[in-house]
Amino acid sequence: MSYIVKSFVAILLLLVIAASPAVAQSSSSLITAELPWWGWALLLFVFTFFLGVIAVIGGVGGGVLFVPIVSAVFPFHFDFVRGAGLLVALCGALSAAPYLLRTGLASMRLGLPMALFGSVGSIIGAAIGLALPIGIVETLLGVTILGIVAIMISASRSDFPVIKKPDPLGAMFGIRGSYLDTSLGTTVEWRVHRTALALMSYV
């Protein structure tokens, strides 16, 4: 497991602890008594600045880290936090997309189908999430974080997965490409498999 993966596993586990009701209530009430409103604004600016750097390097959406940390530490209502998390993820993606596309680290052929299916699933999920009580949503958020940790720990050869043959759907859409790995100084060729399963999972 690479150093970045280990770091993110540790961060996500800390998020689960920080998002627990006891820790969240004690930390929020303690800091609220000491900071004025402009102090919260300054802390939020510094936090989102570093979050933008970490999210792009780690390849995760900013909302994955923003929502658990801000809802656990900052004295903001959870509805405002998850709404702001969508904007944070959107801004991070828009700012990083030109560089990633230019260097081959992102692919429009790969991203557009995923975005289409992901948009449908996001609309349905948002409607369900707004109808659920906040406690259930926070619990599901913690379960999701633990699921991400489990996937990152159990993933094998996540840096350079070996795909002997692309599936017919991926070959039909021409989802393949290459990018320059600056750390190794070599060009890495990539292609996809299990495309239909991946599209369904995005819903």
Description:
The structure is a single chain. Helix content is 72%, strand content 6%. It is mainly alpha-helical and 203 residues long. It has one domain. Strands 1-2 form a two-stranded antiparallel ribbon. It is globular, with a radius of gyration of 19 Å. 14% of the residues are buried.
Structural category is mainly alpha
The count of β-strands is 2
Spatial strand sequence of the major β-sheet? 1-2
Mean pLDDT over the full residue set: 75
* N→C terminal distance: 28 Å
**pLDDT < 50 stretches:** 26-30
Tell me the count of domains.
Answer: 1
- Relative helix content: over 70%
Overall 3D geometry?
globular
Task: Please give the largest β-sheet.
Answer: 2 strands, antiparallel
Strand content: 5-15%
How many helix segments?
9
Secondary-structure element pattern, one letter each: HHHHHHHHEEH
| Rg of Cα set | 19 Å
- Subunit organisation of the chains: single chain
Spell out the key features of this protein:
203 residues, mainly alpha, two-stranded antiparallel ribbon, 72% helix, globular
Question: Can you describe this structure in just a few lines?
Answer:
This protein has 203 residues and is mainly α.
Set down the secondary structure blueprint.
Elements: H1 3-18, H2 21-32, H3 37-58, H4 62-73, H5 78-103, H6 108-131, H7 134-154, H8 168-173, E1 176-181, E2 186-191, H9 195-202
Antiparallel strand pairs: 1-2
